[in-house]
Design brief:
Strand order of the largest sheet: 2-1-3-5-4
Shape: globular
Radius of gyration: 16 Å
Number of helices: 8
Bound molecules: iron/sulfur cluster
Distance between the termini: 16 Å
Number of domains: 1
Order of helices and strands: HEHHEHEHHEEHH
CATH class: Alpha Beta
Helix content: 40-55%
Number of strands: 5
CATH superfamily: Uracil-DNA glycosylase-like domain
CATH architecture: 3-Layer(aba) Sandwich
Strand content: 5-15%
Structural class: alpha/beta
């Protein structure tokens, strides 16, 4: 049972979303089409934290749509999960131009929104997609080739959870080896869920 009621958490998330809609804390507010706040159940046990919206996400205001969404949904199935069960968010709520990596000052400016989401939802697990997301949550640089595919204890914004770092699904599109590693990681995650 979640410590807070579902309605209360939804209200907190709605307030944060309104803040994001008018946010001008970093340069990205000038170039975005719309914010991509996050989507999923307010009381989800599992959260996905990725890096930033891409082109289609920016157009539609939802994370992981189009080909990227299809790819993620297929990976979630490998872990025995349905997309509707997980809450999906990004570190940045606005798209960086030309899909470049988030800059440190943008991550810092957007941090209160991610902190607010995690401390409201209080997930038991977070799947971090990509080294930037894993690094933000762990508070240190992450070498994904060494650290992907295992559960580690993590505390962020006063909330403790198990973190599962893995590659960003977009990396799997370009490299066959990364694609296989991603599929293995999600399969392993499914096995880990059965044991906890
Ligand atoms: S990326 Fe985050 S901090 Fe920057 S303008 Fe958008 S909501 Fe604000």
């Amino acid at each position: 049972m979640h410590p807070q009621g579902k309605n209360e958490i939804e209200k907190v998330l709605e307030k944060l979303k309104s803040k994001a809609e008018t946010c001008q804390r970093c340069r990205l507010h000038k170039t975005k089409t719309r914010i991509v706040f996050g989507v999923g159940p307010a009381t989800a046990d599992i959260m996905i934290v990725s890096e930033a919206p891409g082109y289609w996400e920016d157009q539609r205001g939802e994370p992981f749509v189009g080909a990227a969404g299809k790819n993620l949904n297929a990976l979630l199935l490998q872990a025995g999960l349905k997309r509707e069960e997980v809450y999906i968010a990004n570190i940045l709520k606005c798209r960086p131009p030309a899909n470049r990596d988030p800059l440190p000052d943008e991550i810092e400016a957007c941090r209160p929104l991610l902190e607010g989401q995690i401390s409201a939802i209080k997930p038991k697990f977070i799947i971090a997609l990509g080294r930037i997301s894993a690094g933000e949550l762990l508070g240190r640089p992450v070498t994904m080739s060494k650290e992907h595919g295992s559960l580690v204890d993590c505390t962020y914004a006063g909330t403790s959870f198990k973190l599962f770092p893995t590659y960003h699904p977009a990396a799997g599109i370009y490299s066959g080896r990364t694609k296989l590693e991603l599929q293995n990681d999600f399969r392993k995650l499914g096995e880990m869920f059965k044991k906890v």
